[in-house]
Each structure stands twice: as C-alpha cells, then as structure tokens.
Amino acid sequence: MRALHTAATGMMAQELNVQVISNNIANMRTTGYKRQRAEFQDLLYEHVRRIGTQTSDQGNQLPVGVDLGSGVKTVGTPRVMTQGSLYPTGKDLDVAIRGEGFFKIQLPDGTYAYTRDGSFEMDSQGRLVTPQGNLVQPGITIPPNASSITINQQGQVSVTVPGATQPQVLGQLVLTRFINKAGLQPIGDNLFIETPASGTPIDGVANVDGMGDLQQGNLEQANVEAVTEISDLITAQRAYEMNAKVVSATDQMLSTTTNMMR
Amino acid sequence: MENTLLVGLSRQVALRRQLDVIANNVANINTTGFKSDGPLFEEYIAPTARENNFRFADRSVRFVQDRGIWHDMTSGPIQQTSNPLDVAIDGEGFLAVQSPAGERYTRNGALQINAAGQLVTSEGMPVLGDNGPITLQPGDRNIMISKDGRVSVNEGASNSTESQRGKIRLVRFARPQDLIKEGSSTFRAPQGLAAEPVAQPKLQQGALEKSNVSGVVEMTRLIDITRTYTQIASLMQQQSDMRRNTIQQLAEVPA
User: Fold this and answer.
1) Between residues 32 and 71 of chain B, which touch chain A (CB distance below 8 Å)?
2) N or C of chain B: less Cβ packing under 10 Å?
C-alpha cells in the first residue's frame, strides 16, 4: 500500500526536523550562530483521474479528479539571517556587527571564510586572529607595547603607544556582504564560505553603503529563541507520532486482508 | 452470488485510496502552505444483472467508487517567524511563481534570494511581480514587504530613502477547486481557468502560513477507515462461510 511509504516520508521529514531543531538548541549560546529551519514541500502527485477529462460527447467534464500524493520532501534547511541581540562582554577584542556584513577571515589554505562571530584574540606575533588562529582581514598587527586598543564603529583599529599623544591607527576591518547571505555554506567553527548561490562577496567597510556598524566590547548572541524551538519540537514530535499511527493503521489493514483467507 | 464479495471489494479499494490520501495529509502536517485533500465517493449502479419485469424486481447492485479528491482551500494557521523574507497570505490569493514549465501558484511564502538577487521560492522558482521577477540590488537592505505586496528596500548610505523593487502579484481563481497539485507546494491552473488579480491583497511579512491539515480530524478518519475495513472484511468472510456451507450441504450425497 502506498500509504506505508507516504507515512514513512513523513516520519523521515520529522526526524530531520528534530535534527535541525536540536542543532539550533545546541547552539543557543554560540556567538554569531544563525538558526536554521527545515523547509518541507509535498512530493509528486499521481493523477489517477485527471481533472477536466471529458466524460461525454456533450462535453461534460470531470469537475474534480483523483490525485494521490506521495508524501513530503525536505527542500532545504535555510538559515534565518536575522540580527542576534548584542551582549556586552567588556573585552577589548570582542566586536559585534550591528546590521549587514560578515568579518572576512583568511583560512590556512589562503582562501577566505566569513563569520559574524567577532570574538577575536591576539596571537604570539600580535596579529588579530579568530579563536582558531585564522587571520582577520586585513592583517592587523598590534605592537607589543600598545595599550588601550580601540575599534570604532567604522572598524578602525587604533592603539596608544607610550610616548605618543595621538592614538595610532593600525588598519580598518574589512566587512563583506552577499546578495544572498542565506546561500552561504557553513563549514563549522562559526565560519561560512562563498557558494554559487550566495553570489560574489562584496567587500567594504562598516557604516558605509549599507554595511552595519561595529560595537566594540560586545558579542552577537545566537538568534535562537528557546520558546520557538521548543514549540517547534513539540509540533515535530506530534507529527512524527501521527505518521507512525498511519503506518500502524496501514499495517492493521494489511493484516485484516491477510486474515480474510482461512 | 459473487455480488457481496465484489461490493465489499469496491469498498475496500476505495478505503485504501482514502488511506493514501490521509497518509499524504499527515506526512505534510508541517509543510508550509500545504492544503489538505479529502476523497469524494459516489455510488455506481451496476447496469447488468437486472430484470425489472418480474413481480418482485431484482434489486440493482450498487458499488462504491472514488470519484474525486477535493482540496480543502481554507487558510492554515499563521506562524510568526520575524524573518523578513517570509510572507503569509492573509485571506484568498496565491503567489505566482515562474517554474521551468510555466507559471505556477503557491501559498508557500518562505522566500529566499538567489545569486542574481531575485526573490525566489525554496525551490528556486522566481516569484513574479507585476513586471516579472522581483530583483534586488547588491547594496539593498531592510527589505520591507507591504500589505499590498510592494517590495521596498533601503539603499545607499542613508536609511531614510526607500526604493521600490517591484510589487508581488497575488492572484485568485474563480474556481480554486479546479487547481491541480503539482508537488513542491505548487498548483497548476488547468486550461480555461484564468488567474485574476486579487482586488485587495493582504500580505503579512515575517509570518508563514502553516499546513491546514488538522491532526485530530486525520486521526479520526484513520480510525474510521481501519474499522470500516475490518467490518467489510468480516462481511466478506461471512459471505464466504455461507457459500462454503452451501456447497458442503448441497454436495452431500445421501448414502
């Protein structure tokens, strides 16, 4: 019976839904994490009796047809790229983006990745790096004797060095935006890479041409809301149970058929 | 003689179809913009094996046949998502989308932007505005979709200037029942059914229309089907027993 397979697609879809929700909940406290959402669509229909078929020479037509659906499919798990709330950390090298844009990070193989996680550190040479040690673009090296690092809203990194009255500007952080940021591919470590779907990266600086501004001493929290996730989880679990019920009902009907012959 | 079996069989076949429809509804209980289906049955009077000239007329035999599937076009519940690219249609209407095979219609408003900046469905089909697909520019931000479907954005340095990128086209049909489901949350209009613009479109940004499948109703139908199926099976069983008895008793040759 078709119903068995149809219900199985429903169960698989809900299993995936729970998987996506659990990843969201697991990343509730991940800086710069953007929640994902499982998107479902109905599968193909078999047109057993086609609508509008002529039923007589007088031109009578079938007003309704018999279309049997074959279940559900997952079409994607797009990211919801809304702004997460900022929370103050007081740390010099924590930067949050308020608005559009991603920080540009150079990976060890020379390619670039993009992130919303601005919890930066300094490596042994004083360079600005991510917690994994990847360079933040453009390479900014902080002198060893520098004190009071300032990153302003435009992303200019400046320090005061002993003996100088004026703060010394070391560089300006690059922000990158994409026309379809939901099309970026996550590679873990809070990083995303460019894909054909995302469009080409557009480099710029903060607060110019629609880029967001930077907030030093803040981090962007995940945009996961516990209430939404839990209610989604309940819905997914109930839907799973109902699909399982359909499987057992189908099974029951099949066994009725088998038992008809004695 | 065989009629009981055949009538029972016609009902069982119909019930299996009905179960298929319910399984599809339940599988799509979480599918955005899904419209549930329901089966329609009709009575089929067998044209043969009838003689009305006897004093006691033969009873005509009636079979059951599934005639059609109707789409329940009521609105599903609206869920707030606060994602600017989600739109829910409040009331009647469909979004028109451009599929490779022609224009299709959907109530699934979980939109995305593709690499060319076009507003597309999750399947990548461009959403049609009054003047073709709606294309956003690389520098656009703060996408706003108004109640009547106008897509406006902020561009450039200031947040006060608004530019319009197009108007989402909402269409309605005189007979929405005639729409054909194509999968991927889309409907196809059969020949002779023209899409008309909705007089007063009402879109809601940051919300999605959930599936209108009601779990309770589907579970009730499911119980109904399994019970009926068992009843019919036992009916056919009794008929079979009766026939076996007849054969045994009639065939008993007295010694």
Assistant:
1) 32, 34, 37, 39-40, 66-70
2) C
The verdict on A249 and A204 lying in the same domain is no
Q: Are residues A98 and A180 in the same domain?
A: yes
* A contact test, residue of B13, B24, B239 with most A CBs within 10 A: B24
**Chain segment A151-169, per-residue pLDDT in tens:** 888 888 888 888 878 888 8
Residues A164 and A213 in one domain: yes
Pairing of strands B87-89, B94-99: unpaired
Q: Are residues A99 and A155 in the same domain?
A: yes
Q: What separation, in Å, do the N-terminal and C-terminal C-alpha atoms of chain A show?
A: 22
Q: Kindly list the domain boundaries of chain B, sorted by start residue.
A: 3-73+213-239, 78-209
pLDDT, mean of each 10-residue run, chain A (262 residues): 88 94 92 90 82 77 79 88 88 88 90 90 88 87 84 87 83 87 87 87 83 89 91 92 92 87 65
Q: Which of residues 184-243 of A touch B (CB under 8 A)?
A: 196-199, 202, 208-210, 235-236, 238-239, 242-243
The strand pairing partners of B41, in sequence order, are B66
Handedness of CA A83, A84, A89, A91 (dihedral sign): negative
